[in-house]
Amino acid sequence: MNPILDPTVCLPDAEARVMPDHRVYLYGSHDNPGDTEFCSTNYVSYSSTDLIHWQAHGTIFDSTNPKYAVNNGLTLGAPDCIFNHGHYYLYYCMYGNRMGVAVANSPTGPFKNIGPVTPADGQSIDPAVFIDTDNQAYYFWGQFNLHGGKLANDMKTVIPSSINDNILSEHEHGFHEGASIRKLNNLYYLIYTDISRGRATSLAYATAKHPLGPYTKRGIIIDNTGSDPESWNNHGSIEWINQQLYVFYHRSSQNSIYNRRLCIEPLTLHADGHIDEVKMSSTGVESALSINQTISVSRLSRMRLKLPFNALIEPMALHPSGNTDTLAYIKDGDWVQFDQVSFGTGCRQVEVNLATPKPMRIEVWTEGNHCLGSIYATTLTHDWQTYQSYQGSLELTKGIHQVWLKFCAEQHAVGRLGNLKSIRFIEECEK
């Protein structure tokens, strides 16, 4: 389910890599939940064999710990990692446009710094590394303008004569930052953060017949706009896993451009090399949100807010609550979306876990602009932190559907209505 990691884990900018042990490893930045700054001073990693169950490997690199041979305390930005020459090479960037590489004997480190990547060090951000089928390694970096060239055998020197300083640009390709490169069916794919829709919320792709271009922009893969009131950027990768292509991307939370969480969607790759744009979903690689399952609000894929006249009014957003989330600051007219919700063989009842000192109702809608029913909150809680269960009746519904929850004020209530933690659809046969 999306997001794929615990809601308390913010791992944006993810590079997903299938390593020699056939596990998928995640390498990304590491946001501190609730912080007002991108990233942190360490990297953590997770791995999986099925993209559903993820094993945490803890800290693999830390700029504040001498054992990693950096110890300068600088914030670490988006990384990449590759296996070559029997070792694992972790490429990192730091505040001040510093770029370097660390090496380990394991995909989970600990990675020890072996020095800067020249001449990229000091020039820009967001490293990307790629090894072609002829074993030639390439290195890419840049913001607004993408640079790239061949890596020497030391894996930390970009051969000057091979460098192309104009692989992608903002004005021509919408390139903002965050390049990632893969080779699929003898075609090279550059995935990158695209700003052509006004904000850097999209992942686009361009293709070429050579790693260093020239590249032709082909389209957008995914756009995370609408996942949070302050969605700003996206950054991720694609990876071919068990005969299926996937995109790894992030979306924001907590009404913030920070606190970014990792998600996955399957992709369709056509014979002509085209990749269809996909929508954010609640389910990711899984088929459905099960009937009778308590569905955390973390699983919502999209939200729409009634825009306030006063910019100081806190908008509806996901906020941390222990090891899960609450959908806080709900107001009249707001709504949220859940995808692939199973109603089983028949559902007539829905239950929510809600805190509301004000009378409100929650309408349940499905495809075709069809309202199934409502939940009325009439027995009120005393504050925004006391939760209780409310139930409502629905029109008999079967199968799997997209679901929207619309929040409505009752009895002329104004302002903030309530906080929602979860929703559950109850199969008719359940007592």
TrEMBL record:
<dbReference type="InterPro" id="IPR005084">
    <property type="entry name" value="CBM6"/>
</dbReference>
<keyword id="KW-0624">Polysaccharide degradation</keyword>
<keyword id="KW-0732">Signal</keyword>
<dbReference type="InterPro" id="IPR023296">
    <property type="entry name" value="Glyco_hydro_beta-prop_sf"/>
</dbReference>
<keyword id="KW-0378">Hydrolase</keyword>
<dbReference type="InterPro" id="IPR006710">
    <property type="entry name" value="Glyco_hydro_43"/>
</dbReference>
<dbReference type="Pfam" id="PF04616">
    <property type="entry name" value="Glyco_hydro_43"/>
</dbReference>
<feature type="domain" description="Cellulose binding type IV">
    <location>
        <begin position="305"/>
        <end position="427"/>
    </location>
</feature>
<keyword id="KW-0119">Carbohydrate metabolism</keyword>
<protein>
    <submittedName>
        <fullName>Family 43 glycosylhydrolase</fullName>
    </submittedName>
</protein>
<comment type="similarity">
    <text>Belongs to the glycosyl hydrolase 43 family.</text>
</comment>
<dbReference type="InterPro" id="IPR006584">
    <property type="entry name" value="Cellulose-bd_IV"/>
</dbReference>
<keyword id="KW-0858">Xylan degradation</keyword>
<dbReference type="InterPro" id="IPR052176">
    <property type="entry name" value="Glycosyl_Hydrlase_43_Enz"/>
</dbReference>
<keyword id="KW-0326">Glycosidase</keyword>
<dbReference type="InterPro" id="IPR008979">
    <property type="entry name" value="Galactose-bd-like_sf"/>
</dbReference>
<dbReference type="Pfam" id="PF03422">
    <property type="entry name" value="CBM_6"/>
</dbReference>
